[in-house]
Amino acid sequence: MFDDLWFERLAGMGEGSDERAPARLKSKVYSAAIMRMAGSAPLLDLKETKNSGGHLCVFEHSVALLPMGTAIRSMNPCRVCHARVLGERMEHAPIFWPGCPYSEFHNG
Questions:
Q1: CA-CA distance, 70 to 48, in Å (whole number)?
Q2: pTM for this prediction
Q3: DSSP string covering 33-102, please?
Q4: How far apart are CA 6 and CA 35, in angstroms?
């Protein structure tokens, strides 16, 4: 019953509302979406993402610089990143580096 009320309140948040979805929820939804995208097709090469003006976190930037093939640079480093773990389990997680979506959810 508590879940029903919580989801109803969450669904009722809209324009003009001061309430926002919790950062933990945003983190979990983002992780699920990326995992689903990676399961259906390879992700865009991190080097191509960077060259087209996309923002990369410090770990993605490191992977993009590796002299490896596209298959490695198309993997999702967020799956093994501690920012994802913190972002999904804590509200106001201490994640501060630029380009990290989890940081944006928690500090935005």
A1: 10
A2: 0.75
A3: HHHHHHHHSPPPPHHHHHHTT----HHHHHHHHSS--HHHHTS-GGGG-HHHHHHHH-TT-----TT-HH
A4: 25
